[in-house]
From TrEMBL:
Coiled-coil residue spans: 184-211
Transmembrane segments: 251-275
Superkingdom in the source lineage: Bacteria
Record flagged with keyword Membrane: yes
UniProt KW keywords: Coiled coil, Membrane, Transmembrane, Transmembrane helix
Record organism: Chryseobacterium lactis
DUF4349 domain mapped to chain residues: 68-276
Keyword Plastid (UniProt): no
Protein name: DUF4349 domain-containing protein
Segments for region (Disordered): 40-62
Length: 284
């Protein structure tokens, strides 16, 4: 009987030790997971790169898919015969190229008339618009066209924006498991800062997209009231009428200037009277 009980006792003892060891290892694993979860620190700065992001091929694919971003701008100054007629021609050109006027400013002086237009046109129609203005309205006095490649800036902002959004999601997950009020306030402050930076970055990307998709042309339509034959394509009749008008305006200005001196004309008789009186006394 003793010989049967001893093996049974040893077998029972071995099973208990195994189950206890398994239980201990399971508890240790859970404890380790909890410890690791609690010890996970928040990102120390916004510019910190995530290890998963560096090794991820998706980020490289995103940068590769970004097309080139070219911003085109132009300035043109055109001398015309009549501002109203030139403006009507410009409106027809704008309609053909799906462009629109963003800003309009008119100035009229004694020497010239100026109509300044800020025009926004789809990127693909920019060259056609410039050529139409060069050929069909008047004499081009100056033209300046520039292209600015902002692909690098756009790509850099896009990558940083993607990383900030990852950080934001990580902070939000950490906020759910925050244990103390102090931790909650610190994480909420980080979240607010990230949200502000994300809004700024998205606004900058929208601005770049707008400037890329729609080019800007600053157009000045210029009419010289006193024209020289070297710079004008207008006929003799128009120049003769302008000269007559300018001469009449000069005469009117002269007469108005004389009229403005009427107080001095009133002093002349007084001065003459006093001079004669003084002369007569001197003779006596």
């Amino acid at each position: 009987m003793r010989t049967l009980l001893l093996p049974l006792f040893f077998i029972t003892l071995i099973n208990c030790s195994k189950s206890g060891g398994e239980k201990y290892s399971a508890d240790a694993a859970v404890s380790e997971i909890i410890t690791e979860d609690k010890a996970l620190p928040p990102p120390s700065s916004i510019s910190e790169k995530l290890a998963d992001n560096k090794a991820s091929p998706n980020s490289e694919m995103k940068t590769d898919t970004i097309s080139r971003k070219i911003i085109k701008n132009g300035d043109m100054r055109i001398q015309v015969g009549e501002i109203k007629k030139a403006q009507a021609q410009a409106n027809e050109i704008l309609k053909k190229n799906n462009a629109y006027i963003q800003k309009e400013e008119f100035q009229n002086s004694d020497l010239d008339e100026n109509l300044n237009l800020t025009i926004r046109v789809p990127h693909k129609n920019f060259d056609a618009l410039v050529n139409s203005f060069s050929d069909g309205i008047g004499s081009v006095l100056s033209k300046n066209i520039s292209s600015d490649d902002v692909t690098e800036e756009y790509t850099d902002i896009s990558i940083k924006l993607a990383n900030k959004k990852l950080y934001l999601e990580k902070y939000r997950d950490m906020l759910k498991g925050a244990a103390t009020t102090k931790d909650m306030l610190e994480i909420q402050e980080k979240i607010r800062g990230l949200e502000d930076e994300i809004d700024v970055a998205e606004g900058r990307l929208r601005f770049i997209d707008d400037r890329v998709n729609y080019s800007t042309l600053n157009l000045n339509l210029y009419k010289e009231k006193v024209r020289s034959s070297a710079t004008s394509k207008i006929g003799f009749g128009s120049r003769f009428i302008d000269s007559v008008t300018e001469g009449w305006n000069s005469f009117v200005s002269f007469m108005l200037g004389l009229i403005s001196l009427w107080p001095f004309f009133l002093l002349i008789p007084v001065l003459v009277f006093l001079w004669r009186k003084w002369k007569s006394r001197r003779k006596k």
